[in-house]
Amino acid sequence: MADLEGNADAKKFHPDVPAVRFTHAIRGAANLDWGMQNRLARILDPETGRTVMLAFDHGYFQGPTSGLERVDLGIAPLAGQADALMCTRGALRTSIPPATRAGLVLRASGGPSVLKELSDEYTAMAMADAVRINADAVAVQVFVGGEHESRSIRNLTTLIDEGYAAGIPVLGVTAVGKELVRDARYLGLATRIIAELGAQLVKTYYCEDGFEDVVAGCPVPVIMAGGKKLPELEALTMASRAVRAGAAGVDMGRNIFQSADPGAMMTAVRAVVHDDLDPVDAYELFREATSASVLA
Fold first, then answer.
1. Closest residue by Cα to residue 155 from 142, 167, 169, 171
2. 0.85 cut: is pTM over it?
3. Alpha carbon distance 157, 164 (integer Å)
4. Cβ–Cβ under 8 Å, residues 56 and 86
5. 12: which residues sit within 8 A by CB, 6+ positions away?
6. Is 228 marked active-site?
7. Cβ contact 127:160 at 8 Å
8. Does pLDDT of 71 surpass 70?
9. Is residue 140 assigned to a domain?
10. In the chain, how many domains are there?
11. Would you state the pLDDT for residue 177?
12. Which helix (H) or strand (E) holds 105?
């Protein structure tokens, strides 16, 4: 037991000082359990409420996409630059070092390949495995307006219930099929539905007109999806516009791992998201870092 001798006599309770209220910039999280807030703070910077998430979960329905042929060689070296990783449990266990410090968001829905109807998904992992892996969140596709909309909603709410029990947040991903338009009206509908049903995070696409309304209408952090591969300056411009419209950061995959220099692109994206660097200046940062790596 502790030594009872030699304790200081003067105890300082500071009765004139109100209890400290600990706050953070993570939207909509103030009333969540401590464990869930702690996990969210490993995904989003608690000072800014922003994140640079590196997505490489594409293989769960696309197979070995260009840039993801060898996750251990192409992605693992980038993990230290990411605030969070978004991946499957298979890729994580086989190809990412357990000492990785980035937040972990695990893909938890799946089913069809790119050869079939993509909305025909089910939950694809148990929350108990997310706990075992020490995940900070799980991600589920939600096909609002899709053929299997109701089932994807059921997938979402099932994981949300299990997430509350385990203290693990759920990231709802707005999945847009070929027949749906990526405009503010649709994205506002989808993101609001996902948040209303209890997801603690929402991932959605950027739209030129009205994206600030999409973000304002969603009571939890909205993370911009990177989408298809764009020229680096265009990708940086899209990310900048998204965060300036209120997005809580970006979840980029192809625009990073299919870049001419993924490490340099990570540096540029971080500068845009966390430092509000102008995209033209961030692109120059990318070019300088690319030149340095080529010369090395």
1. 142
2. yes
3. 11
4. yes
5. none
6. no
7. no
8. yes
9. yes
10. 1
11. 64
12. strand 103-107
Mean confidence (pLDDT) of the chain: 93
Q: Say what the pLDDT of residue 293 is.
A: 65
Rounded Cα distance, 119 and 150, in Å: 10
Which one-letter DSSP state was computed for residue 20? P
Tokens of 191: 């993101």
Q: Which domain holds residue 153?
A: 34-259
Q: How confident is the model at residue 6, as a pLDDT?
A: 62
Name the least confident of 69-83, 114-128, 161-175, 197-211: 114-128
In whole angstroms, give the CA distance from residue 83 to residue 50: 9
At 143, which CATH number? 3.20.20.70
Contacts of 13-21 with C-beta under 8 Å, sequence gap 24+, read none
Q: Judge whether 62 lies within some domain.
A: yes
**Within-domain flag for 236:** yes
What pLDDT is attached to residue 7? 67
Candidate list 11, 203, 228, 229, residue with the active-site label: 203
d(C-alpha 47, C-alpha 13), whole Å? 28
User: Tell me: the pLDDT tens digits for 249-281?
Assistant: 999 999 999 999 999 999 999 999 999 999 999
Residue 158 in any domain: the answer is yes
Query: Quick one: pLDDT at residue 181?
Result: 77
Q: Is 202 helix (H, G, I), strand (E, B) or coil?
A: strand
d(CA 54, CA 257): 9
| Amino acid at position 124, single letter | A
What is the tens place of the pLDDT at every residue in 32-67? 999 999 999 999 999 999 999 999 999 888 888 899
Counting beta carbons within 10 angstroms of the beta carbon of residue 210, is it exposed (0 to 12), middle (13 to 18) or buried (19 or more)?
middle
Q: Which residue has the tokens 């937040």?
A: 103
